[in-house]
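Appendix B. Chain record.
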Amino acid sequence: MQKPNRLINEKSPYLQQHAYNPVDWYPWGNEAFSRSKSENKPIFLSIGYSTCYWCHVMKRECFENRQIAELMNEYFINVKVDREELPEIDKIYMTALQSITGSGGWPMNMFLTPHLKPFYGATYIPPKAKYGRAGIEDIFIQINNLWKEKQSELLESSDKIFGILNQRITKTPFISDDILKKEVSEECFKTALRIFDYENGGFGQGNKFPRPSLLNFLLKYYRLSGNTEALDMVTYTLLKIYRGGIFDHIDGGFHRYSVDKFWRVPHFEKMLYDQALITDTLLDTYLITRNITLLECAEKTLGYSIEKLYNGSGGFCSAEDAESFTDISQTEKAEGYFYMWEQDELNEILEKDEFIIFTYIFGIKYEGNTLNDPHSVFGKRNVLHIANDIFEASKEFNKSPEEIKLILEDSINKIKTVRDKRIRPGLDDKILTSQNGLMLNSLANAYRITQNRKYLDIAIKTADFLLNNLIQKDILYHRYKDGEIKFSGTLEDYAFLVKGLITLYESSFQIKYLDNAIELTDKAVELFFDNEYGGFFDTEENRSDVILRVKELYDGALPSGNSVMIENLIKLNSAAENKLYREKAMKSLEFFYEEIESNPFSYPQAIFSLLLYLNPFYEIIISGNKENTLEFKKVINEEYIPGKILMYADTESSKSVNKLATYNINEEKVFICYDYKCEKPVDNPSELKEKLKSLQGE
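Structure tokens predicted for this chain:
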């Protein structure tokens, strides 16, 4: 067996995957940086994550190849980074890669000077030239020759790249008396409408990503404008995603994205953050539309997350892999093998009538249904996707929808039994604060809407796990693995956890979670807020391994830490009566506004927060005996009201939040307050329902 390299001592599942490469890998840190300086060798930095399909491909093709490894070990100091453990490092070099090449992705491969400045980069690199890409051996030889012969030019190039990135981050915002305007929301909506795929849902005609931050903005836009086109785009997209192969119709849960415009064939990794974010969007859309399919999809997604990603002690694991073993000997892996089926396999599992109905509903074909197979990995296998629904099957087979549903449920159970005997995809079992904050938010939201106590119990357990294990000496940490905490928390960790804690407080009325949210927000302001210009940096000051303190705003697969922290500040401004929170939110929005205005479609969650700031934001306060006010809470939770925070006035809460001490805790009433004044209290659920609708212009 190959002798392990330094990565064998790391806990990251991704780094462990590379621990037996013949490459002389270093983890990110001073040992590698010092050697690079002392030997005057450039750093080859490779960034990926454990469930990344093309990362696996490059590992097999390049990093397990002894000839390639020999070049790497001779020419470079080689550093491997798990982007999920060090998202701040990933963001810096992804920003650099995008400025160099115009695009990005993973695996990300960057060449750095000994002072960590980038001068060249690429994503996936094949061993030999193919797919229109240069081969890695040729690139290594060229870079080495340039470093030896034209090092000064490479250093000059790296300084220019660094200067461009630094200029973007340290720009001075243009401030006017009336800089913040709602017009950017109209532009974002128009762009979404222009590129909406009316046939398949989603946006654009290539690979399809769910992008919940955009869907959330459209829901908010619909609520404010009454424009049903915004709501229709969201609902249609969610239903198409649910019907597609990107959704796991056996266990529930969503794969990362589809490689076609039909949501048919996904890259099969399942990420915790996708489950959390899509669930939230499904729940909010259900509140508006009452489409039961959306609620069922949300609950199936949470069911998968709890069954397969929850570690039982309070934390959720990060992801399941795209690839899985194809046989018991565990010698070969294939992407999607665990999830896909040949028609003959299904025929052996199901009775004849079950087989006919199942294959009709899920579009199963003898030759396979994956549309195309450019890398020859799928063969005759099928992705389960809803080609025909229960009602179409009812007409086709002359059975009632109820009969079809029962047959389908029995068939799925049989197939699940067989599938569970396969070797599951690898589990990345590290627990990340940021992603767990998102799942905490989803669980608390699910409890509010369904009143299923299981969701609240797990939310509380998750919050307590994070607060008890990931905070040490007043510092929030990013990663927990096998009892070890590591890596100081970034802005995302603080922002996403605070958001989850606020929602958990609204769901449970346990004041300690609001207190925790306020404490963490104050710490985030201390560590990350730019007091001069506004906005939050991703990292704290004075980190020697961070060449740039980035202020990230782009809302992609994940919303940005800035977008979410601005939302938190607006909510906590009302809850804690801290006007400084609102001022910091305003200053941040002013800092980013020019960027938002130039390309609104890139910043939908930021625009969501902008709309929270520019429109009335309500405090809804319930007083009286908790049991006697449950109907009030139910009425409130049945409405989609993004511009509000829900609070409960009792003796314990009044000790933490001064404003709550002004309410009579013995009277069952609801107070709706805005701009530091409250309307006449409501004392019956029917009147409350009407009042809430009037707030939303209905």
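Further analysis of this model is presented in Appendix C.
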